[in-house]
Every structure is written in structure tokens, then in C-alpha cells.
Amino acid sequence: MTESLHGVTGSGAPVVTIAEIGRHEGETVVLQGWLYNLRESGKLLFPIFRDGTGTIQGVAHKAGVAPEVFDALKSLTQESSVVVTGKVRTDKRAQGGYELDVEQVSVVQRIDEAAPYPITPKEHGVEFLMEHRHLWVRSLRQAAILRIRAEIMRAAQEYFDSNGFVRTDPPILTPAACEGTSTLFPVDYFGDEAFLTQSGQLYIEATALALGKVYSFGPTFRAEKSKTRRHLTEFWMIEPEVAYCDLDGLLELAENFLAHIVQSVVRRRAADLETIGRDISKLRVIEAPFPRLSYDRAVEMLNQAYRDGHLENAFEYGNDFGSPDETWLSSQFDRPVMVHRYPADVKAFYMQPDPDNPRYALCVDVLAPEGYGEIIGGSQRVDSYELLKSRIEAHKLPLEAFEWYLDLRRYGSVPHSGFGMGIERVVAWVCGLEHVRETIPFARTLNRIFP
Ligand code: 4AD
Ligand code: MG
């Protein structure tokens, strides 16, 4: 099939990817890709090709190839698309361990020097790169990050799929808020007001009571009006929900789930972690159990840090943690730390109060190490009808929109718990990135909905 594509492969040799080229040592193969870079040294050309799975250096000697092949190679510009035939040779010094002795080239599209590829190997500002995100994703570093992202999502689903969870997909168009009314994106729904979902939680509470252990995985939306390195307006969340599960059970689920994801990336994406310069030793230690820290104890730590001059502001008891607080707290541990039992007042309406002290909620925020902060938020859910109804009223949420949700407490209510994990926050941590904008193919933020 590929052989006949535009008639460009010509040679009839097998089409292979750079990732699997090691299996074709000594053979003549065809690569379908792009010119990444071209170096000349006298009568030698060293083109570097990329094909989406990796890069390989080609070698062509003026005396060793047909003149038209040499000329075609020599005139290739960065990111011109090209199909190359060549012989695979082991080279210990080469990145990846192999080189390609070029025999033939078919140029699919040559980019004219007059309008060259905009992203050159020289430095570009982040704004410029984000404006050209559709091209920036071709860079080796960005491609590696996207492969790691894909592995994180694969491993996350694998964990649930192989532990008895059923994936149930909640709606994206919803009639009501799950995570507070201040970050809702309104949609005109045939004359009625609807909203893009902030979380699938309310719906998977329903499917959990139907199926026991469930999860959802999809895009979620928050009209976040803040510009931080942790916030997107559109992000992907994976959320488990478990019937007959309490907060302790949820903490165990969270630590085993996260350890599985990180170790899968270490095992299967080591080369990509190396490409982006990630210190893998920091990931290898991510094994259960994770430290547990009560909100009260976390506040003591923060105020001690303030007295010791590590933090600018004293922490006011009763508040939710801000970014600097989370950054400092999470940098105190080499594994994710699970902060539990926040004051109920700063948390969502659906969280079960602690029976030992109802001012606290049976909830958890998992903060990733190295200063990354919150990657998971979850809780045990209110299971009493009366309490949930009064919470909905106290939060001034429209009762009619929640009648179906209250049904879950009218008919066979049980203790149940769940959490949500933001994929982009986890990608940022696992890859060691400064900002979430590089963790998703096309980031949506307060100031960006292009390209
Ligand atoms: O803590 P959050 O708001 O929790 C919920 O939405 C619950 N309903 C989840 C549940 O219990 N099923 O969000 C969960 C996670 C956060 O820990 C964070 O990783 C991510 O979603 N997140 C964001 N990621 C990027 N940009 C944003 N604006 C995010 N808001 C939340
Ligand atoms: Mg949260």
C-alpha cells in the first residue's frame, strides 16, 4: 500500500519506521519522513531525517551516490518532506545507534528558501512558538512530551480496566455546576442555558451505584480567569468513582494508580524522558505508599516555613492552599503527598463531613513532588439525602437541576468515593515542565484559542 503512495518510494525496499530500524541492520529500507537538519562537510552530506518515531542521521558521499541524488539531498531545506532509501548501518557514536547510507531520495515537497519553515534551530520566544503550535509539535522535544502524555493516558486507563472498573462516559453538555459557578462556560442550548462540564463526577456517582466501580475520561472545562502555569480552560480529567468505598480506600487507590502510571512511563518511555532531559531517578522512587498529611499538620508546616523565612506570607488557618503553599509543601517530599481533611467550608458541596469533627471534609488533594502541587482532588461523598439537600441550598445551587442527583440519595444510598486527576498536571510533573501549555497538543488558556 505505502509502496504506491505517489509512486515516491520507488525502490521497492520495505518501508520501516526509525523506531524499529534496529531490526533491519544491514538491509536496504525506505523511510518516509522529513528533513530535520542538513550538515555538509566537503564531499559528504549528513542529512538528519525524522519520521515521527525518531531521528536518524543519513550519510551520502558525492562519489557514492548518483549525481541527481546528491543534488536533491544537498538542496533539501528544513522540514521538506522526503522519502529516503538507504542501507542501515550500526554506528556506536550515532544517536540511536544507527546510521543510514543513503541510496535514493524522492522529494515529496521541497520548501522554498523564499518562504522557509518558520521554526529554526535558533531560540524562539514562547509566544512565537505557541502561535506556531501546529508546527512546534514537530520538534523532537515536543513530540517526546506528546508521546509521554499518550503513555500516561494509556497507563491510567489500563490501571482501571484491569482492576474491575467500567468506563462510563458522562455528558459534556450539562445543566448545572459541579465545581462552583464561577468557572462555568455557558452554552446556548436551543434557547436554554447549558454549560460545558467541569467534571464528570456527578454522573459517574450515578453509574457507580449501577456498576460498582466506574471511571470517566474526557475533556473538562473551566473558565479560569487566572494566568498561572497550572491552569488551562480545557483539560483532560480521568475520574474513578467507587461504591462502598471510604476515604481510606480512596487514598490507597490514588497511590497505587499514580505509581502504576509513573512506572509505566519509566519503563516504556525512557528514551523520551532522556530526550527531554528528565531526571529519571526522581520518578523511579514513586512507589506506594505515599505520605499522608492532615490539613492541620500541613498548616503547621507552612507556618513553620514562614517563621524560618522560606515563605513570604503566614498562612491563615481555614483557607485553601495557594500555589506558593502547594509548591512549598510538595517540595518537602520525594513522593506525592496526600493532604486530607480540609475545612469543609473551602471545599465542594458534595464532600462528606468527617464524623470525628464535621468542620472537616473527608477529602484529599494529592500534591506532586518537586513543587508541582495538586494533581488529584477527591473525596468521600455526602450520602445522606437531608445533608446533601441542605448543602445544595447553602451553596445557592438550583435545586431543580440537582433533583436527579438527590435521587441517588433517595434510592439505595451508600458511602462512596472518587477523585479526579488532571492529565496535563501529571504530564507537567512527569516531564518536569515549567508550564502546562506544553502538555497538551493545543492548549486553551485565558488568552489563547489559536491555533
Ligand atoms: O480538584 P478538582 O476541581 O476536582 C474535581 O473536579 C472533582 N469533581 C473530581 C472528582 O472528585 N471526581 O479537579 C481535579 C483535578 C485537579 O486536581 C487538577 O489535576 C485538574 O483536575 N484540574 C486542572 N487542570 C488544569 N487546568 C485547570 N484549570 C484545572 N482544574 C482542575
Ligand atoms: Mg482541587
In spatial order, strands of the major sheet run: 6-10-11-18-17-16-13-12
| Structural class based on helices, strands and sheet pairing | alpha+beta
CATH class of the largest domain: Alpha Beta
* CATH-level-2 architecture of the largest domain: 2-Layer Sandwich
N- and C-termini, Cα separation: 33 Å
CATH topology of the largest domain: BirA Bifunctional Protein, domain 2
Number of strands: 18
Strand content bin: 25-35%
What is the typical, i.e. mean, pLDDT?
A: 96
What is the number of helical segments per DSSP (H or I, 4+ residues)? 13
Percent of residues in helices comes to 25-40%
Rg calc: 26 Å
> Ions, cofactors, ligands: which are bound?
4-amino-1,4-dioxobutan-2-aminium adenosine-5'-monophosphate, magnesium ion
Q: CATH homologous superfamily of the largest domain - what is it?
A: Bira Bifunctional Protein, Domain 2
Biggest sheet descriptor:
8 strands, mixed
Q: Can you tell me the overall shape?
A: elongated
**What is the total number of structural domains?**
2
Which regions contain 5 or more consecutive residues with pLDDT less than 50?
none
